[in-house]
Amino acid sequence: MIRFKIDIESTELLDRITTIYNFKRDTITARIALSLSIEKGKVYTEDISSLPQNGREYTPTSNIFGRLINDTDNFTLYKTIFDQHYGKELSENDFVRLYKLHLKDGLDIWNTQLDNCDITKGEHISILLKPIKKGLTLRSNTPYISTDRKKSDIREFQDLLSFEIGTSENNEPIVININDLREFDNRNIAIAGMAGSGKTQLIKDILYQISKKSNYELKYIFFDYKGEGNPEQLKPFLEATKASFVDIVNDGGIDFNPFLSINLEERQKPFSIRAFVDTISTFVPRMGVSQENILISLINDLLDRKNGTYPTIAELFSDLENYYEENSIRQDTLYGVVRDLSTNIFNCDPNNPDILSNSLYLNLPPALSDTLRQLVVFLLLRYFNSYFSSTNDCEPKEHIFPLRYVIVIDEAHIYLKNKNARKALEDLLRLLRSKGVIVVMLSQGVEDYKTKDFDFASQVKLPICLNIQNKDYKAISNFVGTPNSKYKLETEIKKLDSGKGLINIGEPKIIELRQWWRTTKLV
């Protein structure tokens, strides 16, 4: 990474402005100053001489460009901005020369504004707020970041979305205004309940209400990890929510290409490929660094050959098979998993509609290995993560937060027990909360949501505790939130039974749960 010195005047201005704003580091000041110059549209010609190197020195550890993805230096990001600003591929020396010129220009602009304001009245804060407000305005008017991937025409549901989860002991309906910011600052839902507690019937009823009240604009995907879904039995639910049913085994796979999560833009591609391979290595037993490197190399070569289009899993397996044969490598777990993924798991037809365009009930029967079922779920989640990260954050309208999609993860404890999968879920919850996506997790016990390295309940605003085996007070209070009255919570816990749930909204209360099997009789 590069090392350079700036001029003494820029050093003095950096120190002055950093002190005025009480920034922790002068590198923060430098990034803001640079943006002021670039935003103004300043362009230097080639005959402009370099500034003297008589000031502060910046080394690879100075963090002058900041860090963003995988804790890597943002030098490439800044170099790209300068390449675009000057309309050509700059050499490293040209970039450093121009960087120092723009830095000094931005510092001069900023310093002049400070000289003309009253700092004691806080006018120096307004200097920064103006470009920030301008940037936010530009951002809100930009619908999507352009990529090579096919985009769904996902519409934002911008009205209040309410649904009932049950009735109180006084027979009063418990209504959830899930996207009202006055009640919920995030829209994630966690349901804990053992088999027979009613959690599946509850979430089906919630999905029915969401579908109907959003006029079916808000689509969902339901990952049925147990694979117990029967299309005939599910028919009323599927018709009521206008959803498709796909059984991975009996329907010959899902119409989806997992490679779609890879961004083909040259500078993003290495990160996307790495994330794709990390997803596979999370669930493939005994997959080591050498296997990861083989997979990364093969995917890189395959994407280069496809020249801007996406390959299929079958093409990846063909390349992997040839590589193992040519290098006399014995078949291993990586080989087996890629082979299995290429066998009627994914239909990678490029003419497939985008998976986000319709609601989908995905059945993952036990005929598939645990590894394959988990991989299918996380390859799809990887795509959702990639897709929504390339969209703008939703912009609230007064107190209503727009919604775009619903993800339901059944048997979430399977992933919560996997350290690497936990990290992926944590990232997903953090990212998607600003993108208008509701994430619903279903698990067997409240303790599943609190691990030694992360408290998933902290990322959930609507925890619902159904009948569970372990009715430990501390575990339940950690899940539903600290109650106003310990005695009240202890009293309500004793009432838990099949078809009943415990919530802590205002105060702990037992509710009679909504159940799809009851609702279906009225539909």
UniProtKB/TrEMBL annotation:
Q: Which domain of life is it from?
A: Bacteria
Protein's name in the database: DndE family protein
* Species name: Chryseobacterium oryzae
Q: Name one Pfam family in it.
A: DndE
